[in-house]
Amino acid sequence: MNIGIDIDNVIADTYTDLSSFFHNFMGKEHTPFEVVEIMRWRKLLMWRYFARAWRQKVMTTIPLINGAAPVIREWYQKHNISLVTSRTIIFGRQTKKWLKEHDIPYHKLHHAKETTKYTKVKNCQLFIEDNLEEALVLANHCDKVFLFDQPWNRQPVKPNNIIRVSSWQEILKKA
Ligand SMILES: [Mg+2]
């Protein structure tokens, strides 16, 4: 299978780990849904945020989401694994280092603007993503999309090739 996998909040427990860093940058606390909206719309502010995150290398110490590594290692033996992240390219080196340290194997690593991830995985049979907007676009191009359950994506989803999953154990079973 050609499998696409998002990194933040699917493999890396980014939100949990960086929420205090984010709130600190913003000067106040926001709900998970508000954080996603801020990231989506306040691009200029987010460039400042990413520059600070890059300088302080906060992306390099994020813990893994439970169960992700063993499944990806197993899949890597028989499937084509593309990691597709919307992290900007400035995080390329830090991301590769992090993946290596956690022994996450992959065939390709792509940086893609939001809603363009589908362009990176040809003949995509499965994609795993936590961003609902991205998942809706991916569903038009991939056989199956697993929506990794997170507080910001709990809205009902229509396309029946989008399947909500809440753990990597469940992903392994349903893939
Ligand atoms: Mg994500």
Describe, in plain words, how this protein is organized in 3D.
39% of the residues lie in helices and 15% in strands. The protein is built from 7 helices and 6 strands, in the order βααααβαββαββα. The protein has helices at 14-26, 32-41, 43-55, 68-76, 92-101, 132-138, 168-174; strands spanning 2-5, 80-85, 108-111, 126-129, 144-148, 162-165. α5 (92-101) links the parallel β2 (80-85) and β3. The mean pLDDT is 96. The structure holds magnesium ion (MG). Magnesium ion is lined by residues 6, 8-10, 130-131. Magnesium ion binds next to loops.
Strand arrangement within the widest β-sheet reads 3-2-1-4-5-6
CATH topology (level 3) name of the largest domain: Rossmann fold
In one word, what is the shape?
globular
Quaternary class: single chain
- Total strand count, please? 6
CATH class of the largest domain: Alpha Beta
Order of helices and strands: EHHHHEHEEHEEH
Q: Mean pLDDT, as a whole number?
A: 96
What percentage of amino acids are in beta strands? 15-25%
Termini separation (Å)? 10 Å
Uncertain segments are: none
- CATH architectural type of the largest domain: 3-Layer(aba) Sandwich
Helix content: 25-40%
InterPro entries: 5'(3')-deoxyribonucleotidase (IPR010708), 5_3-deoxyribonucleotidase-like (IPR052419), HAD-like_sf (IPR036412), HAD_sf (IPR023214), Nucleotidase_putative (IPR009206)
EC number: 3.1.3.-
Active site: 6, 8
Family: Belongs to the 5'(3')-deoxyribonucleotidase family.
